[in-house]
Amino acid sequence: MRPGGLTESLRQVHRDYPPMPLYVTENGVAYPDPIRDGEVSDDDRIAFLDAHLRATHDALTHGVDLRGYFYWSLLDNFEWAEGYAKRFGLVHVDFHTQQRSARWYAEVIARNAVR
User: Fold this and answer.
1) What pTM value is reported for the model?
2) Domain span at residue 79?
3) Nearest to residue 77, comparing CAs of 14, 45, 114, 30?
4) Among candidates 25, 30, 6, which has minimal Cα distance to 81?
């Protein structure tokens, strides 16, 4: 949703329905975030967040009882339609480095038994 659409949607719900606290949930974006010098370059995500937080503030100034904004997602994760191809997270996850527990669990599944 574009920032202006977010503001308008919040104002419309505030205007057309009985008073209630509102929350924006799962608002996020995936961009191709290159890693440069060991840091994820995600200036587009910063711009997205800035614009959407300003949009929620605009709704607040118009009387909307907005109680929270929850970005999607804190961590890169599995997206049902995209798998791991798109990254939404504020925290970059290295999916290639498995923990020992992942390897142990894979062995249990392969054996179909816990030893």
Assistant:
1) 0.83
2) 3-111
3) 30
4) 30
